[in-house]
Structure formats: structure tokens, C-alpha cells
Amino acid sequence: MLAPLSVSTQKRTCPLLSVQPVRGLVDEKFQIAVTNLPPNQKVTLHSLHQSDDKDFWEAFGHYVSDEHGSVTGFKDECLGGTYDGTEPMGLLWSMRPIPGSRHGLRLRKRDIFRPMEVCISVYSGHLSQGFSQQTPLATSVTERWYVAPGVKRVNIREEEIRGTLFLPPGFGPYPGVLDLWGTGGGLVEYRSALLASHGFASMALEYTQDTDASYFEKAYQILNNHPMVKKDHLAVLGLSVGSAITLSMASYSKVIKPQCCVCISGSHLMPVEKSLSELFELMKSNEDKLCVNEDNQVIYRNLILSLPCQSAKVDVGRIKCPLLLVNGDDDQTFPVVESAEDMAMMMEKAGNRHLLEILMYPDTGHLIEPPYSPHFRATNYKLEWKNERIVMLWGGQTKPHAYAQEDAWKKILAFLWQHLASNLK
């Protein structure tokens, strides 16, 4: 009789770790559960991810098992680590480079057809370092995808336009989104892939500091005329300088007539009239207005506030479509608080204030990414108009910034569906 009892005891004391779903979209929550622990045991949940740039990122949280020997990450309280409190997704949004990594890193998905693989492990005790030297009690790997099954990727290379169109599964036609990132360089696809995973034909557009207004108009026309896109059911979504472009095009272009616009961390104080190079030349001539903090991180917002083109700011009173502003009040890169207030007054005076919706998130910085992305307060950045590498201070605090990303993404999707899906047959 002793042998069966010994086997049963062994099974009961072998910890089991479950992460569900094993595969899911990056904006989908997972649930972590550890069972078969001794009651009241201190354990550490740890996440580890190797980025497309081959850098390792990690997060960890301290827990104590309940009287049944279980820890459930989606309802139990984390007592410390890179996050605390009841935070089901803390192991993702609090990720940071492992000790000894290169400085100023930013986690960005470059190959959207490979998942973000995250190794979740549970360790005995409350650990804060040296995870690679310890043996975990249990480990599980979860795949986080930016692209849902069936989403198609189409290269756009016509009329000098360089972009990528992502089409949802099915026969269409779909409402369209022209997706504009900032001037960080390259073709950034992951947000467009995620938008397509939620039913939008989204075109990520690459542009440079020499790009003029006609380039964006041509891209808009290509998207609007695509057979899988519902004609005249388009939105423009911009981040940072992409928002400045969005506001200028929505106000002045005779070609770009979106049904709605979303501007993340943007400003109307950067008018894009003929080409971006003119704007960047203006910035270069005022580079003495750039501020640097005690950590040698560049604070960009004062430069934009002090530009001598304030009298030529974008006349947002001309905008004729619904406009959603998504901002963080600790944005150290763009003066989004001042811009939003001024835009509201301008649109009130013009009689189109009813078209404007402002989301202003406390303790949130400039880089408002899709949900559960790590927070980057300051990272390496190439300042295109100076051809110089700096450390840019984006701003924000980790937990409130994470909350903002999750809430903003839900409201952006709802806003797009509200204004693009009406009368969509």
C-alpha cells in the first residue's frame, strides 16, 4: 500500500504551469495558473523573450501559493517584482532588457509572420535576478501573434509608393485604414497587421523626410481604389509625426477625404504643407530649443512649442470628419496637452468641435503602442533632420502607460468601426 501512496504524493508535489491560450493575438489576454505547489510557498513567475533584434527581455512577479497550493496570475496579487498588484498581463507590459543588455533598447516586431514567443517559468522563492542560473519548477511557452490566421500581406510598389497592405480573411470588401508611423525609419507593419486581424484593410506606409504631400495622397488613392477595400470607407491613423501629417492632410488635401481620423501623440503645431523636409529644416534652425535632462536624454517637446510657425499651425477648423486624439499627459516628445486644448478651441470657434474626441491619459508617455507592449520611457533614436543618434525621452510611467495602451486600443477599434462600418454592405 505504500507504493501507490508514494506515487500519489510525488504527482501532487510536481508543480504544473498552464498558460492559456498557448497561441493568441498580442492584444488578447492570457491566463497563467500554477498548481501542485505546497501551500503558502513563495514563488516567482518569470517571462523571457528574445526579440527579432536578438536581445533578451524579461519580467517577473512574486507570489505566494494559496492553501490549495495554487497561484493564478489573473486574480492573485503580485507582491513585487517588475510589477505589483493584480495584473494578469504584467509579465508582458513590464518587460525590460535583461541585466547586461545594450542601453536604450526598444522592442519592435520586424517579422510579423513569426510569433513573439514568450517563455513563462515558475521558480521557487522570491527571486529578482540570476534566473538563468536557476532551474525552474515548470516552464511553458506561449505564442503572441500580430497577424491572425488567414490575413494576407500584399506589397504595394506602384507610383513610387512603398507600403504593405494587410487584408483580413474572407472576400471583402473591407473598410480601410492608412497607417502612418513617425520618422523612426523603415516600414513598420505590426500595427497594420493587427488592424487587419480585427477586420480592417490596413496599409502601412513608408516615408522619408523628403516626402511631399502628394505621396500621401497617392497612397490614399491606391488604398481607396483597391478591389478588396470598400471605396470611400477609409480612415487615416497616425502616430507622432504621422499624426501631424494626418491633421494636415485632413485639413487641406482635396484628395484625402477620410470618414474619420485617429491621431496618437500628435500636434497641429507641425504643419506639413509641401514636404516634410521644409518642416525638418525649420526644426534644425531652432535646435537650440532642444532640452537635455540630467541623464542626457533629449526632451523634444519644447522645440515644437517654440517653432516660429505657430501662426501657420494646421487650421483644424477645416476638418470635416470625426477626429480622435489619443494622448498621454507626460509626453516629453510632443506638446500634446497644449495642442489638444488649442485644437479644441479652434474647432469650437469653427463650429466643428462636436467632431473632436480627446483621450488624455495620466502619467502616459509618447509611444502609445498596442496592448501589453512594454513601456519605453527613453530609447535610442536617430534624429533624421540632424542625422544624429540620441537618447529620446518619451515619458510615462510603466503601469499607467500600460493601462492607457489597453484602454486606448479598445477605443480606437470601436471608433474605427463606428465611423467606417456604417452603411457597409
Automatic annotation (TrEMBL):
The BAAT/Acyl-CoA thioester hydrolase C-terminal domain extends over 212-421
Q: Where is the active site?
A: 240, 331, 366
One GO BP on record is: acyl-CoA metabolic process
Q: Which residues form the Acyl-CoA thioester hydrolase/bile acid-CoA amino acid N-acetyltransferase domain?
A: 27-158
Q: Which Gene3D superfamilies match?
A: Acyl-CoA thioester hydrolase/BAAT N-terminal domain, alpha/beta hydrolase
Drop me one GO molecular function for this one. Answer: fatty acyl-CoA hydrolase activity
Q: Which PANTHER family match?
A: ACYL-COA THIOESTERASE 17-RELATED, ACYL-COENZYME A THIOESTERASE-RELATED
Instruction: Say which family it is in.
Output: Belongs to the C/M/P thioester hydrolase family.
Q: What is this protein called?
A: Acyl-coenzyme A thioesterase 4-like
Query: Highest lineage ranks of the organism?
Result: Eukaryota, Metazoa, Chordata, Craniata, Vertebrata
